[in-house]
Amino acid sequence: MCSTTAPRPTLTSAITSASPTSSSPASTTSPAARFTRPCSTTSERENTWARLLADQSKADVVITEIGGTTGDIEGLPFLEAIREFALEAGHGNVVFMHVTYVPFIKAAGELKTKPTQQSVAKLREIGIAPHILIARCERPLDKELRQKISLFCNVPYEAVIEEKDVDHSIYEVPLMLQRDRLDDLVCRLLHLDTPTANMAHWQEIIRKLIAPQHRVRIGVVGKYIELQDAYKSVYEAVIHGGVANDCGVEIVKVDAEDIEREGPEKILKGLGGILVPGGFGERGIEGKIMAAKYARENKLPYLGLCLGMQIATIEFARNVLKLDKAHSTEFDPDTPHPVIALLDEQRKITKKGGTMRLGAQPCQLVMGSMAAKLYGAFVVNERHRHRYEFNNAYRDKFEKADFVFSGTSPDGKLVEVIELPNHPFFIASQFHPEFRSKPHQPHPLFRGFIAAAHAHIHHRPL
Asked: Which residues lie closer than 8 Å to 347 by C-beta, 6 or more apart?
């Protein structure tokens, strides 16, 4: 619903009671239990989808988040959708929560509430009256400012919630909001009978982030390194893996083109592990292949995600199987050894979007493999967003060289996970595990990767 890293002055959330007639507790641990988050489309779909989602998920509360700037033409259909939904759901079954920026003007030496007043006024023109205001700010809101916002935005004083920039991590925000009793307020507005929230587990997560017992450095080798948010979900999943191991993670952002120019030894030496994330396009590919080779030859923990799996495959084909100029047809359509290529049925599709494999799909893991041990399961569902696949024409060659296909589609035709058995940790997936990682539920692959990275540097397991 909100952010502590950059101002989002006009994000609006509709929190809807999915079971308005029920007065049973939402959870024994948290008043915001079993929340689930859809995306809005059109007003008609929004109304239907929210109810369908509530029925299927059995959630007590459905949260719909709408980003962007209030009043922009792009967002109007979505705001209209939640306005209509609130009317249909009835009073007491919907809460509008508005995140607004309260800037500190250095020259004046004070916080200004005009942007908040204007965005609320615009919402009211549309027909939405916020019940709660979340005030993003750099300095604390004093009593006078809260009273001013309350008066001119027509919300109760207690519904003006401060969300000041936090010191260490965005994951501190839930505790901050709880201190302002936001959870109690929402439950009261939705007439939910809930016990006091137990945030002890979340407090322990924050402790591990601020004062971890261990430390490790992880190199993320990509080509969009200069863009802070390009690999945001990957960085967060790495941090989650650190939380699972009570290990602080220093993420070293490595430009793949720097490796091409200076060589992997100079740049990657001293790291606990190497991660190659997803991506498109030819730039930086050779640097990533060099990084994968360095990790394989030096027994350095390696985790490849999507393109990172294809990189590991190409490197192995070139340097172990001695398949000269082996490559992906994405980068070299004329390669003599297309170990990564489009499937035959994909080649008939002319529109690029139609050739992509998208969304959650099942993956069957090989019994006894490292992947299966990390997951503790043999069938998992993971999210995909890629176009090219491992070329099964080369499968026998790879298997004979101890290149293990430890995860495949249920029919065995599509390679999902690869690993090297004679390596401390060398795993790569065609899917995107980072999309399913959470601070309180770190993804198994990231959890195992951080543990292996720590063991590599400190020569002892966690």
From this structure: none
247 among known catalytic residues: no
Question: What is the phi-psi region of residue 359: left when phi exceeds 0, alpha when psi lies from -120 to 50, beta otherwise?
Answer: left
Is pLDDT at 56 greater than 70 in this prediction? yes
Do 389 and 296 have their domain in common? yes
Mapped onto helix, strand or coil, the DSSP state of residue 343 is coil
Per DSSP bridges, beta strands 357-365 and 404-408 are antiparallel
The domain of 420 spans: 215-458
pLDDT at 144: 96
Kindly state whether residue 386 falls inside one of the protein's structural domains: yes
Is the predicted pLDDT of residue 405 greater than 50, yes or no? Answer: yes
234 and 198, same domain (yes or no): no
More confident residue, 269 or 15: 269
- Is 399 tagged catalytic? no
Same domain, 182 and 241: no
The answer to whether residue 5 is domain-embedded is no
Amino acid, res. 38: P
From the list 434, 443, 454, 456, the catalytic residue is 434
Catalytic residue among 306, 330, 416, 454: 306
Per annotation, catalytic residue among 432, 443, 454, 456 = 432
Looking at the fold, whether 168 and 245 belong to one and the same domain comes out as: no
Range 427-451 average pLDDT = 97
Looking at the fold, whether 184 and 236 belong to one and the same domain comes out as: no
Q: Total structural domains in the chain? A: 2
Other C-beta atoms closer than 10 Å to the C-beta of 405 total: 18
Q: Are 4 and 165 in contact (CB under 8 A)?
A: yes
Q: How confident is the model at residue 306 (pLDDT cuts 50, 70, 90)?
A: very high
For the question of residue 2 being annotated catalytic, the response is no
- 182 and 222, same domain (yes or no): no
Check whether residue 113 and residue 194 sit in a common domain.
Answer: yes
